[in-house]
TrEMBL record:
Annotated region described as Disordered, given as residue ranges: 233-252
Organism placement in taxonomy: Bacteria, Bacillati, Actinomycetota, Actinomycetes, Propionibacteriales
Signal peptide stretch: 1-33
Keyword Protein biosynthesis in record: no
Protein name as catalogued: Endonuclease/Exonuclease/phosphatase family protein
Superkingdom of the organism of origin: Bacteria
Composition bias type Basic and acidic residues, residue spans: 243-252
């Protein structure tokens, strides 16, 4: 998201805001780990990206980086069993993943209990990987906007999965190389100055341009004798482009990819992974879609209906929507475009500048076989001592909030 501008601080009545929403607001702060018999899945855009390659590894090499300590404490306070972190710079050796686990998660942060994750997964992403093509159409080749995904070096804005349950690494599927044009009915960007449709990319570019701005990962987690597929992604923000709306269209199709993937062979037969294996998720498989999808169901800049492709998919459960009291308070205090939003403020997961204001972009969506026990967004109110972890701009942690869902895995022991 762009740098934060000055914000209008307008107070509005809490009763008016709550009256406009029929949703119950739960606690943003789990008092303890997931209850026995359930598993807590979480997603968190942790903003642990750095401006230069190797910068994150350098920051994590000692245990005193203030932002990393705050991010680690948020994870420790929420105690997810499986957590997907986004905007975590990828390095080929995996040093950043190990250092964050050892120097931060594995050490008490301000009195919070350390948390150990014996298993982790990370892989290359498209961000910062040069395409050698003029993908933004500005007449020059090179730079972050002509990479396969926006970034100034390979691996910037990457992802990592940490898990307390074994990861079936041999069964992981990645979709970093999947071509956008290979998706049937893809929303390929159009040059509005010509009569031809979907012609923003030329023929050479269409042969190569990738769908995923980072990557899409199917990471199977072994929970007892059962397996739950964590479907991880971080679609591009639907902004920072021109009238061709290439980022808005890409965002929508990146979201659609998972909807097709879980919907059965008729919808997913076009899919192929980075090893060339074709097809989507096996029917009947349990899954959790997780990540910063950069799309709100009703507000913000994404194409209408983008995230609804997942929210309305019959394979996705209709359990409790994660909420927080802190998000409602932020709308009350910040005012501005937040007062014009349609969606309930309690569901917001990101504290963005205006426009678009605070919206729901981060999701943990279990499949219908997984019964939701509890859910929340870690967004403490200002009178909560833990509000120091989220704060206000410039944030001590991230402009996103950790989102968690507790589920029961049938047949797991």
């Amino acid at each position: 998201m762009p740098n934060r501008t000055s914000r209008q601080l307008a107070a509005v009545a809490a009763t008016a805001l709550l009256g406009a929403s029929s949703i119950a607001v739960g606690s943003s702060q789990p008092a303890e780990a997931a209850p026995p018999g359930s598993v807590r899945f979480a997603t968190f855009n942790a903003s642990l990206n750095r401006a230069t390659q190797g910068g994150l590894v350098a920051d994590l090499s000692t245990p005193d980086n203030a932002q990393a300590r705050t991010i680690a404490e948020i994870v420790q306070r929420n105690r997810p069993d499986v957590v997907l972190l986004q905007e975590f710079d990828h390095d080929a050796a995996g040093r950043g993943v190990d250092l964050f686990a050892e120097n931060y998660l594995g050490r008490s942060q301000d009195g919070a209990d350390p948390i150990e994750y014996p298993y982790s997964f990370s892989a290359p992403v498209n961000t910062g990987v040069p395409s050698g093509l003029d993908l933004n159409g500005d007449g020059t080749v090179g730079g972050p906007d002509d990479a396969w995904g926006f970034g100034v070096f390979p691996g910037q804005y990457g992802m990592v999965v940490y898990s307390r349950h074994p990861i079936a690494v041999e069964d992981v599927r990645t979709f970093q190389l999947f071509r956008w044009a290979d998706m049937p009915g893809a929303l390929l960007p159009d040059d509005p100055s010509t009569p031809e449709p979907a012609d923003f990319f030329d023929a050479e570019e269409l042969e190569q341009v990738r769908l995923s701005s980072k990557s899409h990962w199917d990471v199977p987690i072994r929970i007892g004798q059962r397996q739950v597929h964590l479907l991880a992604s971080h679609p591009t923000p639907p902004v920072f482009d021109g009238p061709e709306d290439r980022n808005g269209r890409r965002n929508s199709d990146e979201i659609r990819f998972w909807s097709d993937y879980v919907s059965g062979p008729s919808a997913s037969r076009y899919v192929y992974d980075d090893e060339g294996v074709r097809g989507g998720l096996r029917p009947g498989s349990m899954f959790v879609v997780a990540g910063d999808q950069n799309s709100d169901p009703e507000d913000g800049d994404s194409l209408p209906g983008s995230i609804s492709q997942l929210l309305d998919n019959p394979k996705v459960g209709s359990g409790q929507v994660p909420t927080s009291e802190g998000a409602v308070e932020a709308t009350e205090l910040q005012g501005g475009p937040n007062l014009l939003h349609t969606a309930p403020p309690a569901q917001d997961t990101a504290d963005f500048a205006e426009p678009p204001g605070n919206i729901r972009v981060d999701y943990v969506l279990p499949s219908r076989q997984l019964r939701t026990v509890d859910a929340g967004v870690f967004w403490p109110t200002s009178d909560d001592p833990l509000s120091r972890l989220t704060g206000t701009f410039p944030f001590p942690s991230s402009d996103h909030r950790l989102v968690w869902v507790d589920v029961r895995v049938p047949g797991a022991r």
